[in-house]
Structure prediction request, 127 residues.
Amino acid sequence: MALDLSMPILVVDDYQTMVRIIRNLLKQLGFEDVDDASDGTGALAKLKQKKYGLVISDWNMEPMTGYELLRHVRADDVLRTTPFIMVTAESKTENVIAAKKAGVNNYIVKPFNAQTLKTKIEAVCGA
Prediction:
């Protein structure tokens, strides 16, 4: 199955430059419907307003981290099945394990390129 390029994607990162980088990579891959939020709280509000096919979230954010956002998403009956990719600059094993236990679908360590992102999205969205 090919990737659904029309699927809405929510990028969550408190660092606007990173949002722009991920947005550009997604555009290179052909995704058009990309929204962003600067933290987990803003992301949750957007997730309740619109159905996203994928969330790509940074781990380290204030006031709500990507890990806390993931836990909220997985605890919500409506959002529970939303594919979730965690992005982080740290490849600490305990973070990867915690994210997996919380139900993350995939994990990307910065820096990464369009091909890495595509591979992770395909793995998560069943391409």
Notes: The chain has a mean pLDDT of 94. The first strand starts at residue 9 and ends at 12. DSSP finds five helices and five strands in the chain. The radius of gyration is 13 Å.
